[in-house]
Design brief:
The chain has helices spanning about 35-45, 60-65, 85-100, 115-125, 185, 195-205, 225-240, 280-285, 310-320, 350-355, 370-380, 395; strands spanning about 1-5, 25-30, 30-35, 50-55, 75-80, 100-105, 110, 130-135, 145, 155-160, 170-180, 210-215, 220-225, 245-250, 290-295, 330, 365-370, 385, 405. By secondary structure, the protein is an alpha/beta fold.
Length: about 425
């Protein structure tokens, strides 16, 4: 399933910030735009393909994300620079990119909701649309839905703005701006003009008997539309438990696959074999709530011995061998002479993983087989594990890891 993130709004109430940034690029943490948080959050639920609509300062979005490969996803763009089309109009324009069913996310809302549960309700109910709803102290700010008396979340009434509802209680909820939509919804959207999903399309479908379902949000869903709301959202985001994700960072050669002698480089997957115990370690880590992130130096790219396309193919085969239980693979293609910030012993790849996935580095573990790995992990604040092998005795003597193991299964007790 693809996700369509609405990011074309002008954000006039957020000026002067939005004089130089699209609203969806407002930072929710240092160096973390809200739009990037959405992508990383949805990625955790298996969403790997995204469409983003553009209008205000589109180059700020395309320049930051490109084709999405930096984040391990694929991103396409729907251009609305000629004129805003409202929510449903934006869907109609982007429809050729979206498929028969897709997730729709308002790009100016901040949350950590369980998107998998919303998708499950959509599929189980057979509804034309399923949407997240929430409680609010100010119902006038949005569209209100009324749920049926029986359990299940079926929507029986839609109160589009403006309405006179002043209190949300009982079966009344505020639309929270996250939907799963079917092609049946898209077919109801007229082309050639701005169209509102919430004021025109969904209320009309409900009045004609279409099945729409709602899922009450488990946590807060915050609007970032004013400076005060953005500041509140940033503080909320910083203390949210989901910001405390733990990760098992893994070096590649010597930890996941058997190391070649120092100075020799893997250039084809056929040269590799998995280290004994790695599959059990990765599976156990994920069961314990750890993300699994690979960080590896690959200077053979810079030296012309291996193309990045070939390296990505090797990593794709490696991910298959690990039953796709890998959340991200970061590699540094440089040599020491390039003086980059990503090549270990620098901690750039770990810091990037922390930013991309909201990882608490001080609650994470780095497993490596070189002094470079230990230095990088220590610099980032991780607990470090040095794995002995037949090639690294001298390196082991040069570093001071928190733990030294002879076999990966010894790490299980640390999780």
């Amino acid at each position: 399933m693809k996700a369509f993130i609405l990011a074309a709004g002008l954000g006039t109430r957020l000026r002067p910030l939005t004089d130089t940034l699209p609203k969806a690029m407002a930072p929710v943490a240092p160096d973390l735009p809200l739009l990037e948080h959405h992508i990383q959050h949805l990625k955790a639920f298996g969403i790997r393909e995204f469409v983003i609509n553009l209008h205000h300062l589109p180059e700020k979005i395309t320049g930051h994300f490109g084709d999405g490969s930096r984040l391990g996803v694929a991103i396409e763009y729907s251009d609305e620079t000629a004129g805003l089309l409202d929510t449903a109009g934006a869907i109609r324009k982007a429809a050729p990119l979206l498929g028969d069913e897709f997730l729709l996310v308002y790009g100016d809302q901040l949350h950590f909701e369980d998107i998998g549960a919303l998708i499950e309700v959509y599929r189980r109910s057979g509804a034309s649309a399923a949407l997240l709803v929430k409680r609010s102290d100010n119902p006038a700010n949005g569209d209100v839905v009324e749920l049926a008396q029986e359990s299940g979340g079926r929507i029986v009434q839609w109160h589009a703005r403006p309405h006179a509802i002043a209190d949300l209680s009982g079966r009344l909820y505020l639309n929270a701006g996250v939907y799963v939509l079917s092609s049946g919804v898209v077919s109801r959207i007229p082309s050639g003009r701005p169209v509102s999903l919430d004021r025109e399309v969904l209320p009309a479908m409900l009045a004609e008997g279409a099945l729409l379902h709602a899922v009450p949000a488990a946590g807060d869903i915050l609007d970032i539309g004013t400076p005060d709301k953005l500041a509140y959202a940033q503080a909320w985001f910083a203390r949210h438990p989901a910001r405390q994700r733990r990760a098992l960072f893994l070096d590649r050669d010597g930890v996941i696959i058997h190391a070649l002698p120092r100075g020799e480089y893997l250039t084809d997957w056929s040269q590799s074999s998995l280290v004994d115990g790695i599959q059990s370690l990765v599976s156990s880590a994920r069961s314990a709530g750890y993300l699994t992130v690979v960080v590896t130096n690959q200077p053979q790219v810079s030296r012309g011995l291996l193309s990045e396309e070939k390296l990505r193919s090797i990593h794709d085969r490696m991910a298959d061998a690990l039953d796709r239980q890998v959340d991200a693979i970061y590699y540094c293609p440089h040599t020491d002479s390039d003086c980059c910030d990503c090549r270990k012993p620098k901690d750039g790849m770990l810091v990037r993983g922390s930013r991309d996935f909201s990882i608490a580095l001080d609650r994470s573990i780095f497993v490596g087989d070189s002094d470079r790995d230990v230095t990088a992990g220590s610099s980032a604040g991780c607990r470090t594990v040095f794995v002995r092998n037949e090639f690294n005795a001298a390196e082991g003597a040069r570093c001071s890891p928190a733990f030294v193991v002879n076999h990966l299964t010894e790490i299980l007790e640390l999780l």
